[in-house]
Design a protein that fits this description.
Helices cover about 25% and strands about 25% of the residues. The chain is α+β, with helices and mostly antiparallel strands and about 400 residues long. Helix 4 runs parallel beside helix 5.
């Protein structure tokens, strides 16, 4: 077991100086970064693992293996996540959790090790891979979080009730220079890959978070990198990929592209786009991503709820507006709000997905794939994303 000690580092005093660089080119050319680079790379390549599951965990009586994919919004409401998984009738029966956006040592989440805390509280094994070394507190309202960052790490994780083998992480090419905005980070998204030793058979689980501030083309490239890697792995196992794929239908790699894309959708008709494209990104704007999956032998249509959105945006959501202002000019908000008035000030998007190879929806699971919405704790949403769930067996 490789616990949190593998992620400890002495980089904290240097982070403010590293944050002064305007882009990655300047950062990597600096003598300071060249001196610190070996330690930075060690931390970014590290995986923390812990075994908190009982030694014997009986499979579900109906023979169905259940998985959840969930963007837990950094773990801001980690106690709500724990409460939901423990008490929700569907989440509580799940075997594996493919989680994205988990902090370790960030002021915005009270410097918790979110992945470890969730796993320990629920009696789960965990594997946490670092994606970013954060050089400041974050974006939007996160910049005003009390206190200072400790370890300043952020990443993705796999949690499971059964043993995990051959755990590793795969770096994905960035869709945007992570040093060029207000939220400065070193690193990239990483898929977390673990072979789950389930009593009904071993399978490969992948927690995948594709870039948000990216183009549709770059998301396809990130998926291709992952699928190429999975093709090379031995032994050959059934594969389940799940996570937040950020299928927004937008090219958000630059503010200009976002603005032009939004204008295009207004011309298409706001109600039309909100009803027919945001819930179905696979139909047109993100179709290359899903074609790539099917061409490589992965299914997704029967593992997800068609048209069921997982993120909901409201123009009254101050936190979301503040985060958007980091990359969309302020003058655009009048236009965005004007357009969304036609849909009651709200729009929802389908961002979270499963795809599988060598698996099929379990016939024993009469409920089928699900989106679990409206999870709250203490009157607040547990996360800005709704978790998705699927029951499956092996082909």
């Amino acid at each position: 077991m490789m616990d949190a000690a593998v992620l400890e580092h002495g980089l904290g005093p240097y982070l403010p100086d590293l944050a002064r660089f305007k882009n990655t080119r300047e950062l990597e050319a600096s003598p300071l970064y060249r001196r610190l680079q070996p330690e930075v790379r060690r931390v970014l390549d590290a995986i923390s693992m812990g075994d908190f599951a009982p030694s014997i965990e009986a499979p579900a009586a109906d023979g169905c293996i259940r998985a959840v994919a969930w963007n837990v919004e950094r773990g801001i409401h980690a106690e709500g996540v724990i409460e939901s998984i423990r008490n929700h009738p569907k989440l509580a029966r799940s075997d594996v959790f493919l989680l994205s956006e988990l902090d370790y040592g960030m002021a915005r989440t009270r410097n918790r090790f979110v992945a470890r805390d969730i796993a320990e509280a629920l009696g789960l094994n965990y594997a946490f891979a670092v994606c970013y070394l954060a050089l400041n507190k974050g974006s939007g309202i996160e910049k005003h979080a009390e206190g200072e960052n400790a370890e300043s790490l952020h990443g993705n994780a796999v949690l499971a009730r059964h043993p995990m083998r051959r755990v590793h992480a795969l770096p994905l090419p960035n869709g945007k220079d992570k040093m060029s905005g207000e939220e400065k980070r070193i690193g990239c998204q990483r898929a977390v890959i673990a072979d789950i030793q389930h009593p009904r058979g071993e399978f490969r689980a992948v927690s995948l978070h594709l870039d948000a501030h990216s183009s549709q083309r770059r998301r396809v490239q990130q998926m291709q990198v992952l699928l190429d890697h999975l093709d090379r792995l031995e032994p050959r196992l059934p594969v389940l990929i799940g996570g937040d794929w950020n299928t927004t239908t937008h090219n958000a790699s630059r503010a200009l592209y976002s603005i032009l894309g939004y204008c295009r959708r207004v011309l298409m008709g706001v109600r039309h786009v909100v009803a027919n494209h945001y819930p179905y990104p696979e139909r047109w704007f993100e179709r290359r991503l899903f074609r790539e999956l099917e061409q490589r032998g992965y299914s997704y249509r029967d593992l997800n709820v068609p048209g069921a959105c997982t993120l909901h945006y409201d123009i009254q959501d101050i936190a979301a507006n503040l985060n958007m202002r980091e990359w969309v000019p302020g003058w655009c908000f009048w236009f965005i709000n004007w357009a969304l008035e036609r849909t009651g000030g709200r729009c929802s998007l389908k961002l979270d997905w499963f795809a599988g190879k060598g698996i099929h929806p379990a016939v024993e699971d009469s409920e089928g794939p699900a989106v679990i919405d409206s999870l709250k704790s203490g009157g607040k949403r547990v996360s800005d994303h709704d978790p998705i769930m699927v029951g499956f067996g092996f082909s």
